[in-house]
Amino acid sequence: MPHRIGPAPSPAQFEAMALAAFTRIPAPFAEHLEGITVHIEEFADAETLQAVGLTEPFDLTGLYHGHPLGDESIWTGGELRPRITLYRQPLLAEWCETGVNLEDLVTHVVIHEVGHHFGLSDDDMHALEAGAR
């Protein structure tokens, strides 16, 4: 039986899902997330794609911007606060293609990007996810 998708959530609804994902992050990690902001964009721009080694805008669903928590020092003061950007159109495409619950998908991407805040690499996070299965 085909899954029913429904109307695409607005950027504001995406932001609400992302902020709700933050509330589900357990202590002690949650205690170190203050100041991280969430931004919703339709797609990553060409400069961002190039910086992460991608060419296809649908391949990037989220990105952490900032220094990992362990790399912060008094010398990083005056820089922008850490932020997570979610890319709405690639997330919508993945939602439609996979049929996974959109809130679960947004939560997955938010937690992945929060992992970068704590200095975890993509390989570290994939290993953690594989170990949790």
UniProtKB/TrEMBL annotation:
SUPFAM superfamilies: Metalloproteases ('zincins'), catalytic domain. It holds the Pfam family Zincin_1. CDD domains: MMP_ACEL2062 (cd12952). Signal peptide: none annotated. This is Metallopeptidase family protein. The lineage of its organism: Bacteria, Pseudomonadati, Pseudomonadota, Alphaproteobacteria, Sphingomonadales.
